[in-house]
């Protein structure tokens, strides 16, 4: 018997968002590692926490993380059509981006 599909929706309370993020981030990292091992592919996962204080990335070793980024950049430099999709940015995303940039400049 399968598990029921959970209704996914935005959590209005910041504390609920942070708790849900903390509980799910480990599972997402585990799935990324499983994909890499099972299929022999490079998987790169990077996420900022909802409060923009912390970030998580997989693979956990910085050298491996940078190797995958360098590999992507070298492939993209050879293929001009290789670009990251850019979703439409709404006002809250712009505010989040400004907060991230502010934290990175520190």
UniProtKB/TrEMBL annotation:
Keyword Coiled coil: yes
UniProt xrefs under Pfam families: SRF-TF
Record SMART domains: MADS
A single MF term (Gene Ontology): DNA binding
Entry keyword Transcription regulation: yes
Compartments, record wording: Nucleus
SUPFAM superfamilies for this protein: SRF-like (SSF55455)
Coiled coil (UniProt feature): 11-38
Keyword field: Coiled coil, DNA-binding, Nucleus, Transcription, Transcription regulation
GO cellular component: nucleus
InterPro entries hit by this protein: TF_MADSbox (IPR002100), TF_MADSbox_sf (IPR036879)
Domain MADS-box: 1-61
Protein name per the record: MADS-box transcription factor 22
Source organism of the structure: Dendrobium catenatum
Gene for this chain: MADS22
